[in-house]
Design a protein that fits this description.
Elements lengths: L8 H34 L2 E2 L7 E2 L3 H8 L1 H31 L6 H13 L2 H12 L4 H8 L16 H26 L3 H9 L4 H12 L1 H16 L3 H6 L9 H11 L3 H25 L5
Antiparallel strand pairs: 1-2
Helix pairs in contact: 1-13, 2-3, 2-13, 3-7, 3-10, 4-7, 10-13, 12-13
Length: 292
Amino acid sequence: MFRFPDISYRNQRKIIIAAFLIVPMALLITFSFLPVANMIWYSFTDWNGFSEKEFIWIENYRTVFTDPEYFRVFTVSLYYFVGTFVQMAIALYFATILSFKVRLKNFFKGVLFFPYLLNGVAIGFMFLFFFRPDGALDTVLSAIGLGNFTQLWLGNPDLINISLAGTSVWRYMGFNFIIFLGAISSIPGDVYEASEIDGANRWHQFRYIILPSIKIIVSLNLILAISGALSAFEIPYIMTGGANGSMTFVIQTVDTAFKYGKIGLGSAMAVILLIIVVIVTVIQKKFFGEDD
């Protein structure tokens, strides 16, 4: 067995650990830390990607929070944030029902989780056909006698963000459903049996047993909803490209940096999103530690 000459066992461990960490740390620094550091530096400059960088201090950040063109994207994120509550309510409802004895339980689990397995680009194209004039949604509404409610779902500025948020709800609800179902399944069955002996119905079991037992999971998902609402990108970009008032924060960041050549301003927007995600992560760590 190979041993380092005249080196204590503790020092040997340190050398071996350092040797195994060299490659991953080098990759992490090269592809994560250095790009982030450059992005922060670019956010304080007026740079189009080709000319000389002009240092303008916090002017880019002031533009993001004062220019209506850029600040408006925060209001679009509210649609996705509200949609997250709807998504969690639906997921919790089905997770509660399927945690009890139900016929075809495994089939319904698969149906509910299946949309989360689909590619986001494919979902975007699917719902383009779903929402288009005389598409699947309008056909269904007309078939059930609600033809008067047909709309230009992606052409009406008052409905476009609701339609896109609804698409996100359909896609990501399965993820929340699995999380809630796993948490509910960890509750001992003896608790339910004891409650039934005391005369509790399903609503009482949900209110006094299930909800208190998974409140940490519910609270955690609510906190993560903040960063998720701001980082909405895939579905609105594929379906509308941010047109007609559907521009999200990430789409605006990408367009600002690469479409309009404002690398400095786009970097400032990316830094703002990074700070929000870090704050959400710190809150998560503070209120939901390892014991929880």
